[in-house]
Write a structure and sequence with these properties.
This protein is α/β, with parallel strands linked by helices. It folds into two domains: 109 residues, 3-Layer(aba) Sandwich (Rossmann fold), CATH 3.40.50.1260; 160 residues, Rossmann fold (3-Layer(aba) Sandwich). It contains twelve helices and 13 strands. A six-stranded parallel beta sheet has the order 7-6-5-11-12-13, with helices on both faces. Strands 9-8-10 form a three-stranded antiparallel beta sheet. The chain starts with 6 loop residues before the first helix and ends in a 5-residue tail after the last helix. The chain binds adenosine monophosphate (AMP). The site of adenosine monophosphate has 16 residues, from β10.
């Protein structure tokens, strides 16, 4: 527990804002919090102890939400990264106080909301990452919104298998083959261009450790040998994807194009990050890995918006209502 105390956060805030500006309450809604709040002067803040130290937080217990609300006059939520969870401090407290979003949530929902509801077109979405199963509803929802859907990373191989290609020992989700087939049919029916890797970089084994030196070859996506695995998108695919991005007016990207943790296998993810950085479109990046790739490559300031919420941004792309946003009055 001790390592999750917010005391160091209070210390840092005092260092940044000037000593004595932020008092730290050793409890959440107890005597110390009440005393520190009562002693507060204009321009000062009180940081409560980590709310997850109280089991009622994650249960969204109304008694806890009410205790918190009794400490305040107004509730401002600016934590987009937890807005997909209905906890006492992310949703419950709004039942007892006037509730508003802060500038970050405002930016998240206005940039991503516009992209989904009223995008400048062409609208291109790029999805990657390991598993199809993590993005089932995202794919389904985006197919009703985008002009082009690009699928790369580990999840692309189940789509390639659904097309009848042999994918060797690449990542494969046998239970999602029918789903991939349905999504390809849906793309056709909706007139959405669905782009899958046309070539793929293969190796004999998954690198172990993940950043170990590794020998690679590039083959056509339809010709992956039985004993080889695809670990990222080939050069022709990188060009194909970059071209689609170049012509877009709105681009949303979530998930790496391969095992980017290994420097020999990072070029696919770098190519997508670079294409976004060079694009004049509204560019939105969600998901920790893709966001980190943009930051590490120094492209972050050339991306319109890097979402601060991995899970929350995925649920947003799924078209779900986020409880931490739905409860706010002035979104
Ligand atoms: P996710 O957590 O779903 O965003 O997936 C990110 C992880 O997927 C990263 O750790 C990547 O190394 C991994 N990944 C991406 N492409 C592949 C692939 N072709 N084979 C195996 N793992 C992959």
């Amino acid at each position: 527990m001790k390592k999750f105390t917010l005391q160091p956060v209070a210390d840092k805030l005092n260092e940044l804002l000037g000593a004595g500006k932020v008092a730290f309450a050793a409890d959440i809604t107890g005597e110390d919090a009440k005393a520190k709040i009562a002693a507060m002067k204009d321009g000062e803040a009180v940081l409560l102890q980590n709310v997850r130290f109280d089991a009622r937080e994650e249960k969204n217990d109304p008694t806890f939400a009410k205790e918190l609300a009794d400490l305040a006059e107004i509730y401002v939520n600016d934590a987009f990264g937890t807005a997909h969870r209905a906890h006492a401090t992310t949703a419950g407290v709004a039942d007892y106080l006037p509730a508003y979003c802060g500038y970050l949530i405002k930016k998240e929902i206005s940039v991503m909301g516009k992209a989904l509801e009223n995008p400048n077109r062409p609208f291109v979405a790029i999805l990657g990452g390991a598993k199809v199963s993590d993005k089932l509803n995202v794919i389904n929802n985006l197919l009703t919104k985008v002009d082009t859907l690009i699928i790369g990373g580990g999840m692309a191989y189940t789509f390639l298998a659904a097309k009848g290609y042999s994918i060797g020992t690449s990542l494969f989700d046998s239970e999602k083959v029918d789903y991939c087939r349905d999504m390809m049919a849906k793309a056709e029916e909706k007139g959405v261009r669905l782009l899958l890797p046309i070539d793929t970089v293969i190796t004999a084994d998954f690198p172990n450790p993940i950043d170990a030196a590794i020998e690679i070859t590039t083959v056509s996506s339809s010709e992956i040998p039985a004993d080889k695995m695809g670990l990222y998108i080939g050069e022709k695919t990188r060009e194909l994807f970059a071209d689609a991005i170049k012509n877009a007016q709105t681009v949303v990207w979530n998930g790496p194009m391969g095992v980017f943790e290994n420097p020999t296998l990072a070029a696919g993810t770098i190519a997508v990050a670079k294409a976004l950085a060079e694009s004049s479109a509204t560019t939105i990046v969600g998901g920790g890995d893709s966001a980190a790739a943009c930051e590490q490559l120094g492209f972050a300031d050339r991306i319109t918006h890097i979402s601060t919420g991995g899970g929350a941004s995925l649920e947003f792309l799924e078209g779900l209502e986020l409880p931490g946003i739905a409860c706010l009055q002035n979104k």
